[in-house]
Amino acid sequence: MTIDYSEKIPNNVGLAENRTLQRALEQWQPEFQSWWADMGPEGSKGFDVYLRTAVSVDPKGWAHFDYVKMPDYRWGIFLAPAEPERKVNFGAHQGEAAWQEVPGEYRSNLRRLIVTQGDTEPASVEQQRHLGLTAPSLYDLRNLFQVNVEEGRHLWAMVYLLQAYFGRDGREEAEALLERRSGDADNPRILGAFNEKTPDWLSFFMFTYFTDRDGKYQLASLAESGFDPLARTCRFMLTEEAHHMFVGESGVGRVIQRTCEVMNQLKTDDPAKIRAAGVIDLPTIQRYLNFHFSVTMDLFGADVSSNAATFYTTGLKGRFDETKIGDDHKLVGATYPVLEVRDGRLVSVEVPALNALNEKLRDDYIRDATAGVERWNRIIEKAGIPVRLSVPHKAFHRKIGPLAAVHVDPTGNVVDDATWARNERAWLPSAEDRAFVSSLMGRVTEPGRFAGWIAPPARGINNQSVDFEYVRFG
Ligand SMILES: [Fe+2]
Ligand SMILES: [Fe+2]
Question: Residue 405 Cα, ligand 1 centroid: separation in angstroms?
Answer without folding.
Answer: 31
